[in-house]
Amino acid sequence: MSNSSANIYLVAGATRGIGLALVAEIAEKDPSAIIYAGGRNPSGSSQLVEIASKYPGRVELVKYVAADKAGNEAIAKEIGRSMVTLTRLGIANPLGKVHETTVENYEEHFSVNVLGPIVLFQAFRDLLKASALPRFIAVSSGAGSIGMMDMIPMDMSSYGTSKVALNWVVRKIHFENDWLIAYPQCPGAVDTDMGAVTTGQREEFVKHFTLRQPHEAASILVGIIRESTREKDGGQFHNIDGGRYLW
Kind of pairing, strands 135-139 and 7-12? Predict the structure, then answer.
């Protein structure tokens, strides 16, 4: 799957929800794209396998486990010289108030949502630096905005804490790497099985937000990413409507 003129993407967390929709959107809208679709068991996702079959030679399934240093380095060796990275979408289950949430739950969220993207960036930094237009986009959440904390109606202590830390890391990456487009991107409220549905708070979500379907959010996100520049977007906390969130 080598092609020096191709737009190369790694979508880490591609077996469901927004990640799956991003793979489908990129494959359909960008004929030059080569997409590496990562997940713990990518071949176990019938929808992802179907997309790969629809675009032979353009969608490659790879095993991706958050914070797995050796595994991430192996993917980096496989992919090659130039790419765009969308980090793993993360976890958000269960949700609860600070006094209700176990330390183990905080640790799990931090491992996947913060250490996962850090390990991914470390593994791919050299490849990104070799790219003509490198981007490292972390999928964050409005729950990671300290300034908007009073506006988020659900109890998201462990999830929100991990996204605050993720935002800090990606903004730090922006300042440390003046050749890179890096920023955290909120996909908005999306009706996925990882989000409000499995956390049991879907009814609360729909009282406050209009839920987009994954393919709708993916279409908007891909457009934002394609038009992004370091000068305009780097180190900013993006929302899906084109604005910026408070940190």
Answer: unpaired
Rounded to two decimals, the pTM is: 0.88
Contact 191, 140 (CB under 8 A): no
Q: Give 146-200 pLDDT, tens digit per residue.
A: 998 887 766 889 999 999 999 999 999 999 999 999 999 999 988 876 555 445 5
CA–CA gap between residue 87 and residue 110 (Å, rounded): 14
Distances (CA, A) of 27 to 18, 36, 56, 59, 88: 14, 11, 10, 8, 18
**Ramachandran category for residue 67: left, alpha or beta (phi over 0 → left; psi -120 to 50 → alpha):** left
**CA of 67: how far to CAs of 18, 22, 87, 90, 245, in Å?**
20, 21, 11, 11, 27
Element at 98 (helix H, strand E): none
Range of lowest pLDDT (125-134, 137-146, 201-210) = 201-210
Length of the chain: 247
CA 239, 244, 246, 247 dihedral sign is positive
Measured in whole angstroms, the distance separating CA 183 from the mean position of its chain's CA atoms is 11
Round to whole Å and give the CA distance between 201 and 195.
9
